[in-house]
Amino acid sequence: MENLKNNCVVGDVIDTVPANVLQVQYSGTAVNFGNELTPQSTSTEPTLNWPKEDGAMYTVVMVDPDAPSRQRPTAAEWLHWLVINIQGNAKEEIIQYNGPTPPKGTGLHRYVLLVFKQNKRLQMDEKDNKAMKKRANFHIKQFAQKHNLGDAIAANFFQAQNK
User: Fold this and answer.
1) Closest CA to 111 of 102, 121, 123
2) What whole-number distance in Å separates Cα of residue 77 and Cα of residue 150?
3) Contacts of 51 (CB under 8 A, 6+ apart)
4) Closest to 132 (Cα-Cα) out of 78, 86, 58, 66
5) pTM of the model as a whole
6) Which CATH number characterizes residue 36's domain?
7) What is the pLDDT of residues 9-18, one digit of tens each?
8) CA–centroid distance for 81 within its chain
9) What is the pLDDT of residue 129?
10) Taking burial as the number of CB atoms within 10 A of a residue's CB, which of 82, 111, 136, 143 is the most buried?
11) One of this protein's Pfam families, by short name (predicted)?
12) Dihedral through CA 30, CA 34, CA 39, CA 41, nearest 10?
C-alpha cells in the first residue's frame, strides 16, 4: 500500500490510502502495487476481489493519470472502466473495460483501480454519460464528490508501457 504514496497515486488520483487491498487478476497474473504488466496481458477485463459488506453497493473505476504521458498528462485521467451499483452478481457497466493502450515511447503509465462503497443506488444522467464516453479528462475525485462516494475503500495499480 505504501507504493500508492511512493508512485504518487495518492495525490495525483486519490487523497488518502484506502483501508483495503483490491485484489486484481489478469489471466492468473496478479496486480501488485506498481508491478509492470504488458498491455497485451491486460487487454481483457480482470477479476476483482475486495472485502464486501452484505447488502452494500459498490463502484469500481480504472483510470490512467498519465495520459498521454506522465510528463504531459493533458488527457488525464483517462477513464478505462466504470461499473456502478455492484451488489452480489448485479452491476451496471457504465463505461466498458478498455485495456491499457499507452502511446508508443511515452514510458510507464500508472493504471489505477479503485473501489468505492456507495451510500445509495447511483443514477447517471445523460450529461454524465456523454462526458464519460469521451474517456479523456475524467476526474475520479470530482466524480466521487458529485455522487457522495467518499474516499476509496480499496485500491491497487499496475504500470504498463508501449516500447
Assistant:
1) 102
2) 18
3) 20, 154
4) 78
5) 0.95
6) 3.90.280.10
7) 999 999 999 9
8) 7
9) 65
10) 111
11) PBP
12) -10
Q: Are 124 and 91 in contact (CB under 8 A)?
A: no
User: In terms of residue numbers, what domain contains 101?
Assistant: 1-160
Each residue's pLDDT tens digit, 22-33 = 999 999 899 999
Sheet holding 78-87, edge to edge: 20-21, 154-160, 109-118, 57-64, 78-87, 90-95
CA atoms within 13 A on the CB side of 150: 12
- Contacts of residue 18, defined as CB under 8 A and 6 or more positions apart, other chains included, come to 1, 114, 115, 151, 152, 153, 154, 155
The three-state DSSP-derived secondary structure of 10-74 is: HHHCECCCCCEECEEEECCEECCCCCECCCHHHCCCCEEECCCCCCCEEEEEEEECCCCCCCCCC
The model's confidence at residue 131, banded by pLDDT at 50, 70 and 90, is low
